[in-house]
Amino acid sequence: MRILGIESSCDETAAAVVQDDSNRATILSSVVASQLETHSKYGGVVPELASREHLRAIVPVVRSAMERSGSSWDDLSAIAVTQGPGLVGSLLVGITYAKSICFARGIPLIAVNHIEGHIHAVVLEAVDRLAYPALALVVSGGHTHLFQVRQGFSYRLLGKTRDDAAGEAFDKV
Description:
By secondary structure, this protein is an alpha/beta fold. The protein contains 5 helices and 8 strands. The chain has helices spanning about 35-40, 45-70, 90-105, 115-125, 165-170, and strands spanning about 1-5, 10-20, 25-35, 75-85, 110-115, 135-140, 145-150, 155-160. Strand 1 and strand 2 (about 10-20) form a beta hairpin. The longest helix has 23 residues, at about 45-70. The chain is globular, with a radius of gyration of 16 Å.
């Protein structure tokens, strides 16, 4: 099974193709278009500009992820897309593009929670190196969450805040 993932929740447009063989996921490609240059002069992300940059970047980013993975549209079993939380305009670009491809190709759409996606990404990358239970700290924009991650990819929220200080500090580093 091959899945195209699309992420456009804030200020980066990203796409990746993941292959799942016998419950072992392999990342075949991962492409990210940064908007750092666009937003740096304003001292932070400008939502309207972020949305426009996603519109400009989404087609080439997805095309590049597909090419780098050696995949065709017929190889895809589904498309996963970030559905929130995030900037509404930015999310709409990714969701609309993903829905359009799914409709045209007749394949399923998988809506992914942005916060949970951060945990999934680490588990995919470090599956052989994780000792369970593990602790996951997700710092993204105005969201700071602490999770306990257990074997079989179940997790439990231990605490959270909407204070963006941790995310802002991380972005500055």
